[in-house]
Write a structure and sequence with these properties.
NTF2 domain-containing protein (chains A, B); NTF2_dom (chains A, B); protein transport (chains A, B); 128 residues; homodimer; alpha+beta; NTF2-like_dom_sf (chains A, B); Nuclear Transport Factor 2, Chain: A; cytoplasm (chains A, B)
């Protein structure tokens, strides 16, 4: 285990807070968190690389949204100081009376300069 | 990308079918899918290694259960032919009138003999 459990929890939570803050307030900046090898599966649709992932996220059928986080679970990944994070929460959209439950999973890989980028990203709405 | 996208989907789906078949019919055999480096976070509780993970799964507060899978999303992981899988579905317990929605995430790592073991495992119930 290359990353201590406590450190992993702190980094996972900090990443998640940063990610959804950008998503809800400055969505185009999310591009900075992906790299050319990154993959996003959004509601079953696969997207690869910074440009296509950024295009997907910036063209979702809602402009304003607010993510409310319920749980953040983090573990060190097998290789190279990476971190796997599973998030559950709710997504409030202007057109919806009730928030929509979602799950999102990130595989974070450390960069040369001590930050992390998103290698794997899965988003799913949870229908009740 | 070391594992082709289509192959990843097939392996991810086959693994998920196998995993929940064991879980619902022969839960003690799930131990065969973990290794000493494996980690499980079950409803926020962290468990490490085959023995502790197996103990956790075999001592959940229900004996009989049935998993119904809704979605399986798979991607190649960054390193070594691994696969990341996000599952959503429902868990039917005898004591519950309605099935409980859940999300589970697996990071699968190939073994020397061509199979996969679970390196990272997260399970969360999704409350409505």
């Amino acid at each position: 285990m290359e990353v201590e459990s406590c450190h992993v929890d702190v980094v996972g939570k900090a990443f998640v807070d940063h990610y959804y803050n950008l998503f809800d307030n400055d969505r185009s900046s999310l591009a900075s968190l992906y790299q050319p090898t990154s993959m996003l599966t959004f509601e079953g649709q696969k997207t690869f690389g910074v440009t296509d992932i950024s295009c997907k996220l910036n063209n979702l059928p809602f402009e304003k949204c607010k993510h409310i986080i319920s749980t953040v679970d983090s573990q060190p990944s097998a290789f190279g100081g990476g971190i796997v994070v599973l998030v559950s929460g709710s997504l409030q959209l202007p057109a919806e009376e009730h928030p929509l439950r979602f799950s999102q999973m990130f595989h974070l890989i450390p960069t040369q300069d001590g930050f992390f980028f998103v290698q794997n990203d899965f988003f799913r709405l949870n229908y009740g």
